[in-house]
Amino acid sequence: METSKKINLIYGRQIAIVGGGPGGLALARLLQLGGADVKVYERDINQKARVQGAIVDLHYHSGLKVLEAAGLMDAFKIRYMQGADSFRVVDERANILLDDFIPSGRYTFGDEHFRPEIDRGALRDILIDSLLPGTVVWDSQLINLTFSNGQWEMQFKNGTSASSDLVIGCEGYRSRIREYLTDIKSVYTGAAIIQGEIDDPKTACPEIYEIFNGGSLMAMGQEKMLTVQPRGDGGLTFYAASMYPENWEKTSGINFNNPEEVYAYLIHFYNGWHPAFHKLFKACSHFTYRPLNYHPLKLRWQTRSNIIILGDAAHLMPPNGEGVNLAMMDALDLSNCLTSGAYQNIEAALAAYEEMMFARTYPISEETVEGIKDFASPNNESIQKLIQLFGGDEKI
Ligand SMILES: Cc1cc2nc3c(=O)[nH]c(=O)nc-3n(C[C@H](O)[C@H](O)[C@H](O)COP(=O)(O)OP(=O)(O)OC[C@H]3O[C@@H](n4cnc5c(N)ncnc54)[C@H](O)[C@@H]3O)c2cc1C
């Protein structure tokens, strides 16, 4: 990898990125291109540890722009999932409400409407493989952070420790590093997702393919939402969303570690839905209950000169197809602020990054939180709104 040693704010500083998600890894790559001495401390035991979740789409003005800046578009073009950006919206009986099947070539790279999908694990691999050997320190779950003699001392769960001049928290929504900037706590939106993973859907629930169109499937009706997405390894992920009371995981009486109990709940809750959806639930051997939280809007903190956060650690919001893109854009802005030479000192650079990050994320977060009921528990009116938003002119 070619690096340049510009005179900039990172030169001579040891930088610790905590968390190797899309935000942290993109940042590591961009900083290394600027000549930084950077390590990524990641909780996962190794690179093969499975990345939770299905595909993510990258956007022209954010995720794809970052890959371009990172010199990784060629690698992305090899690994992205062609055709997976098509989607279909159906009602609870699997009647098609909107079919946005995108014939190959309708949108392509360079077109701002093109939102190519990639498996989360493949995106992670592209970013990791672009880093200098040994950059990611696996099995490093940060459990404590102290500051003395001008340096941060990080302690990890496996008993090891490391020091650094600048710590960047990219460890997602449960960030410990955020506590060093603000005592803000995330708030429950009122909606939650029951996530299911199916490794071998072609055998376990082939019926879903009669409805599913190779891309993403959204099923909406009876104030319930079900999204099904392909994974890069041939598996499927589904997200069954609805409005639930806070802490429902504990008060529901359902043991979410027992697939039979979750299945019994889902077929009751989705009573009257097409049998292919029930078969989908039956095929799932592992469910995760995910309450959807967000960081209160207009959150601000006092900029510090040696610690900062990005991605979900800084601006958690309910899933809206933007989270990975926003985390990667934070990485690009932060690396630019640190390496451009435009700022006199590191505090000014970090303050400038924070301004950009807040300005970008709050409008999106606000809109998503306001629309949470339409997303998780859509009524007829919100279904029509959604169809129009997605291009109702293509209704068939
Ligand atoms: C159900 C669901 C569906 C979603 N779908 C989409 C989608 O389709 N498109 C999209 O753009 N976004 C989606 N999102 C949002 C997206 O996943 C996040 O916004 C995005 O992953 C944030 O990236 P990040 O790098 O900030 O953090 P993360 O991706 O959360 O990565 C954090 C990393 O830090 C590591 N870590 C955590 N704690 C520690 C610790 N203490 N020490 C060391 N390492 C640690 C983790 O192992 C992980 O690798 C979805 C979210 C959910 C919940």
TrEMBL record:
Transmembrane segments: none annotated. It is found in: Cytoplasm. NADPH binds at R50. Its EC number is 1.14.13.-. Keywords: Cytoplasm, FAD, Flavoprotein, Monooxygenase, NADP, Nucleotide-binding, Oxidoreductase. Its cofactor is FAD. InterPro entries: FAD-bd, FAD/NAD-bd_sf, TetX_monooxygenase. GO terms for biological process: response to antibiotic. SUPFAM superfamilies: FAD/NAD(P)-binding domain. GO terms for cellular component: cytoplasm. FAD binds at D57, R120, D312. Residues 14-77, 163-354 form the FAD-binding domain. GO terms for molecular function: FAD binding; monooxygenase activity. It catalyses: a tetracycline + NADPH + O2 + H(+) = an 11a-hydroxytetracycline + NADP(+) + H2O. Pfam families: FAD_binding_3. Consists of an N-terminal FAD-binding domain with a Rossman fold and a C-terminal substrate-binding domain. An FAD-requiring monooxygenase active on some tetracycline antibiotic derivatives, which leads to their inactivation. Hydroxylates carbon 11a of tetracycline and some analogs. Monomer. HAMAP family: TetX_monooxygenase. Belongs to the aromatic-ring hydroxylase family. TetX subfamily. This is Flavin-dependent monooxygenase. It comes from Pedobacter terrae.
